[in-house]
Amino acid sequence: MSTASKPSASPAASSLTQPVNGQKADRVFRGVAYACGILILVTLAAVALFLLFRAWPLIGGDQQANSAVIENFTGGKAKSFWGYVGPLLFGTVLVAALALVLAFFVSIGIALFISHYAPKRLAAVLSYIVDILAAIPSVIYGLWGGLVLVPAIYPFWNWIAEYLGWIPLFAGPAANPPRTVATVALVLAIMILPIITSIARDIFLQTPKLLEEAALGLGATKWEMIKLSVLPFGKSGVISASMLGLGRALGETMAVLMILSPGLKYSFKLLQASQNQTIAANIAAQYPEADGIGVSVLIGTGLVLFVITFLVNLLARRITEKAGK
Amino acid sequence: MHTNLARRAFAALCGVALAVAAAACGDNTDPSDRPVSNASSISGSFAGAGASSQQTAVEAWIAGYQKTNPDAKISYNPSGSGAGVVTFLTGATVWAGSDKPLDSAQVEESKQVCSGSTAFDVPVYISPIAIVFNLRGVSDAGKHINMDAATIAKVFNGKITRWNDPTLAKQNPDLDLPDLPITVVHRSDKSGTTLNLLEYLKATAGKDWPYQLSENWPNDVGQGAKGTSGVISTIDQANGTIGYADLSQVGDMGTVAVKVGDEYTEISADAASKAVADSKLDESVPGANRVVLDINHATTEPGAYPIVLVSYDIACPIYRDENTARFAKSWLGYITGKAGQDQAKNATGSAPLPENIAQYVRASIDAIEVK
């Protein structure tokens, strides 16, 4: 990400007889690096402008037509844009946060196992598998979730609803087939698991040997050593990794679209169907039927998602900075 | 954005196609030399657009029509009823398929593309809508469940929540119904299938169905699934589910036998035909030549199955272009005739147009002016 270019310390030694002017290459490289850095800013600005421009009829246009379109989308359940995007936003954050909670601890566990516990050869194989998992496209997870996991996991959710149903989150009866937030969160957790694991592993491996050996030398057990040296060292990196995972979960479309039975409620009933919907999946579901203003409404919800993703990253940056001090 | 572009591109393409067709016609020998009934005289490229429900049937019709008219190139864009009518009213397509008849404003607007005359709609595709369920011990044994309209409404309304509810047990003395929750599965997207089921419930269930008519599912009962395929796969996934879908998509899943009069009628193409035959024309619609059905959902005709989706084709009585007019007349004549209706029945399980309706359809199509 860093765009600063370091001047080369020693002149190029391609020829010993003729002096080589490294300044020109240096300048060219600096230019290229600057261009790349600026390009990312331009792209971001272009996306933001596109969203604002296309969502404009929503803000500056005929409000009556807007609410008619929104009523049409929702079958009369929502009338204003905020009444429409509110539950969607709630669903998006709920699903993504659940997925992150589910994935986070398992990821850290896998990463620590690979970096500090597993025998060398097993660690290499595991690393490789994690990287492959990270590369599987989300539609595959969606298909697997929709066709295999949904029918298979019902007995488990039913058991939870029966014995833990007194917790409002798990209020029964569990929907059958369980095309619910709980199932979606599980699939998303599996999806973001390899991303978090992969980054966390790399960071844990970079823990200075000196710190680890010092802890062990003071008589710490392996777990105490990890607690004292590895985890504090990796903290900010792990937070960045989770935010990357959260970002993917927030924007995930296909897997949600293929599994979730959508609803428009502010509801925490994870095991019941037709409670929530996410912004991204909603755009994909409604787009084919949308016309002029309808497209604007959907892009407006996209703008909200964009802003939320932005805020989440900003927050993560703040936390990372604090942790780094 | 994308659809708009695609629509525009499609419209432009159609315009070009029509121009080419017109040019091709100019090159031909005088069309009046040939009898209209000579099917082989139709050539050129013709486009229609509209209801996706008709798509499979239209594909079968195109294949059948081209057997006798190998020079006619026909395309159908299943862009949806609303989009199909809009495209038709721009003059880019020869005909539109729609799950809904035209409204008064659209009839008025059609004067621009129909050379001053007004467009008309005729029913071409009647598809029975099945109430599908998955219940171990019943549906996998090939058995039907009997339900009257009020029971269906209460199930889809969340009032009846278990399969062994006394209301169900009383109507199905031969079945051993399990103590299992009912999971309702409905469409999560807008759909003509939903609208037609709701029309049936509204007309027959009375106070048990308090909702307004809509293409969106009106309540929060059960689960939503995208498209007919989504509904079918969701029902397939769990024991105790019930939903609705076009008969052609049902396969060997269990279907509900609906109470009509004193008997329970199992779903079939011919039973749906009977219900349509027992229906009246809606005479109140403005415009000439229109055949709009007012389906008699509350029919008591023995053996009739009253939950049907009627899909219309919309065309002009006068076309600017001679070749297009001849095509429209022969094409609509073919698809609403016996051969075409049988073709659709074989391909999709649709119900053939009953004779008492077909005569009005023929009269309307005959009104297309061909010099």
From TrEMBL, chain A:
GO BP term (any one): phosphate ion transport
Protein known as: Phosphate transport system permease protein
Source species: Bifidobacterium pseudolongum subsp. globosum
Domain of life the protein comes from: Bacteria
GO cellular component: plasma membrane
Predominant cellular place of this UniProt entry's protein: membrane
Biological role stated in the UniProt entry: Part of the binding-protein-dependent transport system for phosphate; probably responsible for the translocation of the substrate across the membrane.
Family affiliation: Belongs to the binding-protein-dependent transport system permease family. CysTW subfamily.
Matching Pfam families: BPD_transp_1
Transmembrane domains' residue ranges: 32-53, 88-113, 125-144, 156-174, 181-200, 293-316
TrEMBL record, chain B:
GO annotation terms (biological process): phosphate ion transmembrane transport
Alphabetical list of CDD domains matching this protein: PBP2_PstS
Signal peptide: 1-23
InterPro entries: ABC_phos-bd_PstS, PBP_domain, Phosphate-bind_PstS
Cellular compartments per GO CC: ATP-binding cassette (ABC) transporter complex
GO molecular function, one term: phosphate ion binding
Domain PBP stretches: 39-337
Keyword vocabulary terms for this entry: Phosphate transport, Signal, Transport
SUPFAM superfamilies for the chain: Periplasmic binding protein-like II
Family statement drawn from the similarity comment of this UniProt entry: Belongs to the PstS family.
Protein's name in the database: Phosphate-binding protein
Species of origin: Bifidobacterium pseudolongum subsp. globosum
Organism placement in taxonomy: Bacteria, Bacillati, Actinomycetota, Actinomycetes, Bifidobacteriales
